[in-house]
Specification:
Mean pLDDT: 95
Radius of gyration: 20 Å
Oligomer: single chain
Bound molecules: serine
Helix content: 40-55%
Order of helices and strands: EHEHEHEHHEHEHEEHEEHEEHEHEHH
Number of helices: 13
């Protein structure tokens, strides 16, 4: 039997690049990608086929589906939370309408193949909305169903798409003649802030963590857009990708829900700054909080309760705060920037 085809949207993004490497290393899937920008050369050889195009283009999605028997979708394409506040309508189009297009495509594929296409969807800590710093401190680790009152367009979009996915999985066409046809199999993870040693995110509000680290490694000063006390959970990128793959491969009978919190370590901006300074003693980190971005971070919980993921499919992150920095972030980032010449080197 040939290996199943996996479609990855937003493949050029932060999660996408690490996921492509992981899927290639595991060797169990053939990967097709779609992203607005052409996939970087280094990643193209890991894929069966790559498409440059917009997920809003239904014709393109139909073309991709016509050419491949897609069994799995990782729908990673999205506009993150800060970007979404700058252009809420565009965020809604990409994050909601785009997701609907992908769900429709995956649903059609499920019907055509006669078995459920697995649809993996990264949701976010942004679906929560803590009303105040006091309430946030009091709540501590929040469960999936608590505080689902987001204050960003991105958070609203992710929360709604979680519901759409659940709807497609359990109720799609419940009244019609197709009520007994195969439905897709939607599985979603609510990620905390993600930190990668290889890429810096763009347009997010948890970006202060990774930005601080990458600026220090590049010997650049960094002005943090939240205050030192701002605290949310983070996760190292390899753990995020492992969680996605693990959830993909989980036995459906063991899944009690379609949405799962996953968390790794909860730290303040000051603690990240201190850890970054320990590895890069010359790091120039200052705090210049932006009122709106700080408010967004303050609306996200201090930590997420991921008991459901641990119980249902054995979620267990490999990296806590110390290990993430000692064994992954610092060594990988040093290697990354040591092999890249400083920006002005070629101009001299
Ligand atoms: N990292 C995302 C953001 O900051 C949250 O999921 O928008």
């Amino acid at each position: 039997m040939s290996k199943p085809v996996v479609l990855v949207t937003g493949a050029n993004g932060e999660i996408g690049r690490t996921l492509l490497q992981r899927l290639h290393a595991e060797g169990r899937y053939r990967v097709v990608t779609v992203d607005l920008t052409p996939l970087a050369e280094k990643y193209r050889s890991l894929c069966l086929e790559t498409y440059a195009g917009n997920i809003m283009d239904r014709y393109l999605l139909d073309q991709i589906a016509a050419h491949h028997d897609i069994e799995v979708v990782f729908h990673l394409a999205a506009l993150l939370s800060t970007r979404g506040e700058r252009d809420p309508e565009l965020a809604h189009q990409v994050n909601v309408e785009g997701t609907l297009h992908l769900l429709r495509m995956a649903q059609n594929q499920s019907g055509r193949l006669g078995r459920p296409v697995r649809f993996l969807f990264p949701s976010s800590i942004a679906v929560y909305g803590m009303p105040s710093i006091q309430e946030k401190a009091k709540a501590g680790r929040v469960r999936e169903e608590d505080w689902n009152v987001p204050i960003t367009m991105y958070g609203c979009n992710k929360l709604y798409c979680e519901h759409l996915g659940r709807y497609f999985t359990r109720y799609f066409r419940q009244l019609g003649a197709l009520a007994t046809a195969a439905r897709l199999d939607f599985r979603s993870l609510r990620f905390p802030g993600l930190i990668s040693a290889e890429t810096v995110p763009t347009g997010g509000t948890s970006d202060f963590g990774p930005e601080m680290l990458h600026a220090a490694a590049r010997k650049q000063p960094y002005e943090c857009f939240v205050g030192p006390e701002a605290k949310i959970p983070f996760m190292a990128m390899p753990d995020a990708v492992s969680a996605l793959v693990r959830l993909l491969e989980a036995d459906r009978a063991k899944l009690t829900d379609t949405v799962y919190n996953v968390s790794a370590f909860s730290v303040s901006a000051a603690e990240i700054a201190e850890r970054v300074r320990a590895s890069f003693p010359g790091a120039q980190i200052s705090f210049a909080p932006d009122a709106v971005r700080s408010k967004i971070v303050d609306s996200w919980p201090e930590d997420m309760d991921d008991t459901r993921a641990r119980n249902d499919w054995g979620y267990a992150p490999a990296f806590d705060f110390e290990r993430a920095f000692d064994e992954y972030l610092i060594p990988t980032i040093r290697e990354r920037y040591n092999s890249v010449p400083p920006p002005s080197a070629g101009a001299r």
